[in-house]
Amino acid sequence: MTTAQQQALFYDVEQQAITFQGRKLFQQQPNCPIAVLGQGQADVSMYRGNFDIQDHLLTKWPLTIQDHQANTDRLVLTLGTHDTAYLCLTFQIDAQAQLIVTPEVLTGSWNRLWLRIVAEPSDNVYGGGEQLSYFNLRGHHFPLWSSEPGIGRNKHTLTTFQADQDHAGGDYYTTNFPEATFISSQKYYCHATTYAYADFDFSQPGYYDLQFWAIPERLQFGTADDYPSLISKLADQLGRTQGLPEWTNNGVIIGLQGGTERVEAIKQKLQQHHVQLAGLWCQDWEGTQTTSFGKRNYWEWRADSKLYPQLKAHIQNWQQEKLQFLAYINPYVVEDSDLFNEGAAHGYFAKTQAGDVYLVDFGEFLCGVVDFTNPAAYDWFKQVIQHNLIDIGIKGWMADFGEYLPTDVVLYDNSDPMVRHNQWPMLWAKCNYDAVQESAHPEELVYFMRAGATGSQKYGQLLWAGDQSVNWSKDDGIVSTIPAALSSGMVGISLSHSDIGGYTSMYGNIRSKELFMRWAEMAAFTPVMRTHEGNRPQQNFQVYDDDDAMAHLASCTQIFTKLTPYRQAVVNEAVTSGLPAQRPLMMYYDEPAADNCQTEYLFGRDLLVAPVVQPHQASWTVYLPDDQWVNLWTGESYTGGTYDVPAPIGQTPVFYRQSSAFTELFKEIGALK
Amino acid sequence: MTTAQQQALFYDVEQQAITFQGRKLFQQQPNCPIAVLGQGQADVSMYRGNFDIQDHLLTKWPLTIQDHQANTDRLVLTLGTHDTAYLCLTFQIDAQAQLIVTPEVLTGSWNRLWLRIVAEPSDNVYGGGEQLSYFNLRGHHFPLWSSEPGIGRNKHTLTTFQADQDHAGGDYYTTNFPEATFISSQKYYCHATTYAYADFDFSQPGYYDLQFWAIPERLQFGTADDYPSLISKLADQLGRTQGLPEWTNNGVIIGLQGGTERVEAIKQKLQQHHVQLAGLWCQDWEGTQTTSFGKRNYWEWRADSKLYPQLKAHIQNWQQEKLQFLAYINPYVVEDSDLFNEGAAHGYFAKTQAGDVYLVDFGEFLCGVVDFTNPAAYDWFKQVIQHNLIDIGIKGWMADFGEYLPTDVVLYDNSDPMVRHNQWPMLWAKCNYDAVQESAHPEELVYFMRAGATGSQKYGQLLWAGDQSVNWSKDDGIVSTIPAALSSGMVGISLSHSDIGGYTSMYGNIRSKELFMRWAEMAAFTPVMRTHEGNRPQQNFQVYDDDDAMAHLASCTQIFTKLTPYRQAVVNEAVTSGLPAQRPLMMYYDEPAADNCQTEYLFGRDLLVAPVVQPHQASWTVYLPDDQWVNLWTGESYTGGTYDVPAPIGQTPVFYRQSSAFTELFKEIGALK
What we know:
Chain A is an alpha+beta fold. Chain A has three domains: about 5-185 and about 190-225, Beta-galactosidase, Chain A, domain 5, CATH 2.70.98; about 245-330 and about 380-400 and about 420-580, Glycosidases (TIM Barrel, Alpha-Beta Barrel); about 585-670, Immunoglobulin-like (Sandwich). Chain A is about 25% helix and about 30% strand. In chain A, helix 7 (about 375-390) crosses helix 9. The mean pLDDT of chain A is about 95. Chains A, B: Keywords: Glycosidase, Hydrolase. Chains A, B: One of its GO terms (biological process) is carbohydrate metabolic process.
């Protein structure tokens, strides 16, 4: 055993290398310095949540080590150039056996920092928040900036090209939920305490280049011998979800719109077709306004008395049928509404340089941005949630948006919006969290968010994978929900789900019946089942228009409800250990094929789900890692390998571990087919 | 008069500002230094002449002025940081009253240099070599790297999107002919003596940021009171064309393929339709090979005895009809041919790191790259031109390519291919130049090139605007030939022309008859008329298939030949003064509308050409700067303003100056309609 391995923190003076728990993390090398300081000027423009960000970089100074002070659990490096010390990096082991790296600028006004972490060419990297195109981040760089995902996230698709004409196209890294956290296959995590714009570059064979647009408060590294322990350890630091209300196990949460009568009629129709319902989710509960894009919700956040008259009474009636009502809210308030005027009078909105309310364009209507840095505004909006939603019996809601904080607003606390921007989704999550926790029965409530940030582990109860396209495309369609769940799961976001059938229908993309069915089959093996009518309900397939699809959905809800004991165990594990409900295969199986697998997942420890994510498939090729597997539908046994298995509609491939404590339950479910 | 204006070179010590001929060029300011040094590592990949270039920038150090030594015609600045001097900039007035700025690195191994030149927000900037999307460069940055222009040079077009799938799309700055030279509307030129990759950024209101990927030998600045004098002064430095052979005035050079019989038959048909011919240009004179893309020429550079048997005798026959034969050549030699084997045996090709011949993929066939840094290889290929072309009576040729020098070749002189790359077109031009100048009758010969570099002013006899798309698109079609001629004209490239009808037919773009006709009308008012059958001759409109189009072309050639005395005067001005044949309106007219005008041009001093560059136009809106103008076709008089004028097919709008010495000639041409 070498000295480096004996010590938790070891500094090799000659090699100028820093080793933590046997992992070499930093090494000063010619042309590959540990730290680089810089000065840049950001150039940011936003169009409806889509950002164009450029850096005018003036200075980039690689630093050399000028001095070091080392003992067994603490190392202080002084870095600089030309005999001037510019940066101090303190490396220290904390009480949780983490390595804490604290950068401190000694002189100069620097707003760019690059830290280079030593890598092996064979390393894999995971995390980065919720990433939808690449589960394994190695080989790419990831700008970390909260934004609309973009319509089309692959620059080689025609959809993206078309969306780019409208400044609405995305790229492989665009996400509602970026986070400066990653997991290395050397079995350590690295988390940076900062919300500033960052760009983590994993494209180089010998190092990871972490770029920050502000000096981060600190970086923390933790290690473990296996991934589950590592993720639990990270979750200990970042927080864990509160779990899900019991009633979500009752079936699907069905997304409907159009007012009480229509909702009630469709509800009955679904029930007649034996669809098991947990909730009615009506995103238009607050009424609608008409724009040239069609109907848009009216963002004043109170029940609309025309569309949903006497909503409170209706909610009570539905609850007697064991059906919950879910609503929709976001942290913006439409101009000229009563709520807007109230908030404006109190100065609760973010302001322009001139001191007026900063109005953000959401597509032919303008909104004020609730200024969460103002404690009074925060409380005010929390009370809106409490009074207008919780108090009338609403048990769940989509807590939408959070990614739109413009970078040129003036905030109450005068903090820099460039740094607040990425934090905003967490503040919005916390506002929901506090509203819930202060209520009489927090355990009955659920809110789901697409935006996230460090802290969403605790404050974001349930993630949803954002606005997937209503198609089979790799970067935007059904399959992109898998890396979304897996990557966010690696950073401690343990509960995710998605819009069954997808959301975004643009440029001729129309949801098919088959897509809806395959999506529902997959959703039965996620924490929550919830449908969405999509952004253009009338042009897209809707389950309630089709008897066959209702029968199929009924079957999926039957599977889902039947699976409740297992799912509850999985969710309980999330609550207590931070382990994600949907887990990558590499978490347990050290096989090359598992490293990059992002079309399959483990649901809990014992179910392997390999959803059919292509149209017109009667069978499906599945990769099974080395274990004893049983096909949920056929009962056939398998060991590790690649197999072509039957996959008729209704039976997306699922396998359970022969050693599971739930084999009897799984057999019962398999018999439902 | 201030001191700064009194002196040619003035250094204001307090302001740290350098003024040359009354123009403030440099000023050290906080966050806006005169010079920045850096270190970067280029990451270059090439796919068939399309380059992807990234910089891994390690260091960027803004420098401050540490010392200065000044007298009336010489200033030496020492720049550095932390009391270390890194760069010396010497500013000196030369015998031609130019300001010569010479950077010298004092210590360190730097390969990036930024120089910032003071700008006024209202400045316009021109030049940059041959630029096809923006004549006025202000507001954009221009990477200067010789490459294929790309199929589609506008990222918002579907064509570009489609081409990008094949790594063949371009961007607004991609050009066969970049040059580190620009003209400011403060009436000075700036030319950098370097062929290294550069990026000139004119997007900032207060400065121009000139980035170089090697320390340039020097920058030179010259001033004048008007643009014609300024361009002449620049041409005195960079060189001037030899002009054009007399026979090019005889009519159109017609692009044909398919062997002697087909060429002769079409020639006769055209003559029967009264098309006046100057030459027959057969790019397949060296024979063809078949690839999956279709027929490609066989790059061995000798007459193919099957397609063109007894070519020398045929050439003599055609010459008796006053018809010249033109061929095609480029500086690559197809693998396994006799010429290749000969060159390889002598080591005349660029090599791989392993010492083998470096083979470049040109689309299912591989070629060696003639190594022009090897004097013996240069002479060898010059003799190929002399023996295989000139000696058999060929009087002109397309000297194609030059942009493909890979950046990982090993050259004979071991020079850096990153620096040679941009120079290669000039070396290729010079090889042609020398072949011509050493021949018995250089004045009878013409070669035309699309690639260029500093030195092409002298060695590139005639530019052609590259591979336009066969359409009306702004960045790729007919109209892009105008900024191409105007921008290259601003840096002393005085003779340009284009493929009548365009070249590139891809992704469903097909040449129409109307496009061909409008292009021919325009070409009658350029130095040379030449057609091209395009890359897919059979799918595109060909003039010889259409009686009506042949009559139209006959009319255009009649105008062209009739215009000869005027055109000769214009070409003579190019030879003696370096003034371009096609001139931007801003060269003579100080009007805001002239600053950005890139759809019209002056042909010589007296003709204003406003080509119809949209389909289905019976009339056309023209902008006329303040002068006395006469419509060439109607005889109507105009003063400055914007007018809608008749523009039937055959009469693209052209105006002459009432004060011209050629008014009688112009009247005769107008009567030809």
